[in-house]
Amino acid sequence: MTRQAIVAANWKMNGDSALVDNIVSGLANVKLSSHVDVVICPSFAYLSELNQKIKAAKLNEAIHVGSQNLSEHESGAFTGEISTAMLQDLAINYVIVGHSERRSIYKETSLQVAKKVNAALDAGLTPILCIGESEVERVTGETEAVLSAQIQPVIDEVGIDKFIDVVIAYEPVWAIGTGKTASSAMAQETHKFIRQFLAQQSELVSDKVPLLYGGSVNAANCEELFAQTDIDGGLIGGASLKAEQFKIICSAAKGK
Ligand code: PGA
User: Fold this and answer.
1) For a pocket test of ligand 1, which of 43, 69, 171 has the largest count of ligand atoms closer than 8 A to its C-beta?
2) Other CB atoms closer than 10 Å to residue 240's CB: what's the count?
3) 20 to 30 A from 6, CA-CA: which of 160, 169, 212, 254?
């Protein structure tokens, strides 16, 4: 069995129609290995435009559009939120859940993140579940405990069998937007821990779930990171806003 590789772009609160055009034309002749999916996650405002332009330009069918967030609620009085039904309506099939900025700035708890993952899976969307430790937690040796405490509530909520359809993005918080990438050896060691943690509950899930690395990935370091045994692609912030860089990163990913 080949495990799918994924390169996901997280535009955060950046970008405009010009960037949509730029990325669509930049990916026009991108070379992707088989077993690679590319997922571009713009702000809600550009989901539809990006999806339509990708289709109109007849880009590689492995290029998808994803949301940066979703509500755990079905509908109702939740100002500023977006539901799974709305994402389905826009033909969106991926969603980032529990990014560290959502956890720290918007105080999303691991339980809430678990409910969001469940809502995504129920709607047939692929959740990209973000986990990661802070610098203090890394230095004090708490990384594994923190990651376990972020993953386990999701498994408890959705059940290990459904977890097979989840994608995990490991993003050490201290490496996000800072230019400080985890060394490929450190990233591999942590990914291996995550894979073993999953294997304790299901070998099948552990073999199948793509584990992405995120945190200052760029065109220069992606190849070495993606070559690691347990790294199946990346979640890319800053470098995903530059078409040339992002294209190189997409081409570096390979299924394992
Ligand atoms: P970065 O962001 O690549 O700019 O570090 C990654 C992320 O936050 O997903």
Assistant:
1) 171
2) 29
3) 160
